[in-house]
Amino acid sequence: MISISLCMIVKNEEEVLHRCLSSVKDICDEIIIIDTGSTDKTKEIARVFTDKVLDFEWIDDFAAARNFAFSQAKMDYIFWMDADDVLLNEDQEKFLRLKKTLESSYDAVSFIYNIAFDEYGSPTFSYRRNRLVKSCRDFKWVGFVHEYLEVSGNILSADIAITHRKSDKINSSERSGRNLAIYEARLERGDPFTPRDLYYYANELKDHRQYLKAIMYYREFLATKKGWVEDEIRACAMMAECYQKLGNKDKEKEALALSLKYDTPRPEISCRFGDLYKADKSFRKAIIWYKLALEGGNSGGQGFNQPAYSTWYPHLQLCVAYWEIGEKDLSIEHHLHAKKYRPDDASVRQNDEFFKNYIK
């Protein structure tokens, strides 16, 4: 059986750290907590679980902090989480089974990362990240913000999910402002930006409602032609969102259409086209795009998974669109499909009542 070091970097995480560490303490053989300047009870909480709580002087570089944490690990494999992540009971059991059976030939293991949820607790946005890596491979983190672990070799895709659950008391806008400030300080110094930096800087600008500037950096990112294809598609979708906020529907459509340059249309792109045509009462055009969303599925692999756009959402919109063009049987059919996915959804229940009265 392999041994595992948990390596984390933290700062002012007293609201979530105990929950995080409690979910992995029985899996990891070593817990290493690197504090980058907490002023609350974070270190006190960490010491309940480990005596390996070290300080790291913050230098506006997340990769540097994570690489320092990894350098302290002594076990066969290194596992990493953020303080606002948690392993649910089912995933703890899966991880323990993996620990007992993992062959040493694997250099890394990727886990599912569920980062957003609907009102029923079902994941609405997921993707994969390499979470467990072999210590002797000495893999390094890259990127001063939105860092990633550069991994190669024999990688296993595990059916284990890490759940991202932020505390309501943690100010996400403050963290986002910190990230934006780091990017802008680097720009002011004249530091070169990688394609990934350009993409994530544009995201920070969009989150801070600097839509025109965000669009400029999304286009600069796309012009490099060196981005991950999923990020290129997301950049087009985010540009479309910026144009939507600016009230420019034509440019919004152009940005969505640009995504088709990189791959077949993702369900999100198809649904957004459908929404635009539905809003203009061009219901037949909307139907084409919503049906395409149902046929498109998800990107799979390491791509982003947004199940709503390939399941209940297009069915719900097709219910409306078919009704508007007089195809009432098809409208009812898609309502029933939507109902299977979300029987308690307010819109589905409203439609259900409407159709009951219509049939009567």
UniProtKB/TrEMBL annotation:
The record places domain Glycosyltransferase 2-like at 5-124
Q: Which domain of life is it from?
A: Bacteria
Which InterPro entries does the record match to this protein? Glyco_trans_2-like, Nucleotide-diphossugar_trans, TPR-like_helical_dom_sf
Q: What Pfam family is a match, any one?
A: Glycos_transf_2
Q: Known PANTHER family for this protein?
A: GLYCOSYLTRANSFERASE, POLY-BETA-1,6-N-ACETYL-D-GLUCOSAMINE SYNTHASE
- The molecule here is called Glycosyltransferase family 2 protein
